[in-house]
């Protein structure tokens, strides 16, 4: 739903219809609202989004899909945003949504492999995912790695280097760029810069919104691993 009065009114009517269906059929429909086309530039849009969170508490996605012309362009070409443009807010937002859906599905599983810390999405390495979790953490170092075979320059910046460009360069190994960093135990935000374009780590399912509208990848170095 878009953050507008009519959309908010319409979802209220839908909930009334679902309630009638549940009463008549005994079948409960699980509702979860997703805010899309969110610009965040007007106080009205922010107020409607707040109303959605208030009235649909527990029945809305935490992820918000921001307005992006790249999403409209991808739709016009008939391709998913992941194939059209990986360096835009639309891709980041739908990646965050996919992570949130995976989190909800995993929470229903019986293995207890998922934990949530505020707005952060955390999944254990024991879960069944097609890609390995990144970065790789050993007893002595952290290996940051990202596939970018066509990139001319890749950097990694985060809390561990005070988001400083100096010394942030990664080394290409085939089509993969890598950087080895020694880190003490702690919790770190980081992002990659691929040819001057910022992005979160595509192999790290742990992300957190930052104040600038993007997503930071989250790395936690445990005492046991670092010791």
Summed up, what is this model?
With 227 residues, this protein is α+β, with helices and mostly antiparallel strands. It has helices at residues 5-25, 43-55, 69-77, 81-84, 89-108, 223-226; strands spanning 33-38, 60-66, 114-117, 120-123, 136-137, 142-147, 154-158, 171-173, 176-181, 186-194, 197-199, 207-209, 215-221. The strands form four sheets. Strands 7, 10, 11, 12 and 13 form a five-stranded antiparallel β-sheet that branches. It has a four-stranded antiparallel β-sheet with strand order 5-6-9-8, with no helix packed on it.
Describe how the helices and strands are arranged.
Elements: H1 5-25, E1 33-38, H2 43-55, E2 60-66, H3 69-77, H4 81-84, H5 89-108, E3 114-117, E4 120-123, E5 136-137, E6 142-147, E7 154-158, E8 171-173, E9 176-181, E10 186-194, E11 197-199, E12 207-209, E13 215-221, H6 223-226
Parallel strand pairs: 1-2
Antiparallel strand pairs: 3-4, 5-6, 6-9, 7-10, 8-9, 10-11, 10-13, 12-13
Task: Explain what the structure shows.
By secondary structure, the protein is an alpha+beta fold. The protein is built from six helices and 13 strands. It has helices at 5-25, 43-55, 69-77, 81-84, 89-108, 223-226, and strands spanning 33-38, 60-66, 114-117, 120-123, 136-137, 142-147, 154-158, 171-173, 176-181, 186-194, 197-199, 207-209, 215-221. The strands form four sheets. Strands 7, 10, 11, 12 and 13 form a five-stranded antiparallel beta sheet that branches. It has a four-stranded antiparallel beta sheet with strand order 5-6-9-8, with no helix packed on it. Strand 3 and strand 4 form a beta hairpin. It is elongated and about 60 Å long. The N and C termini lie far apart (48 Å). The model is unreliable at 110-133 (pLDDT under 50).
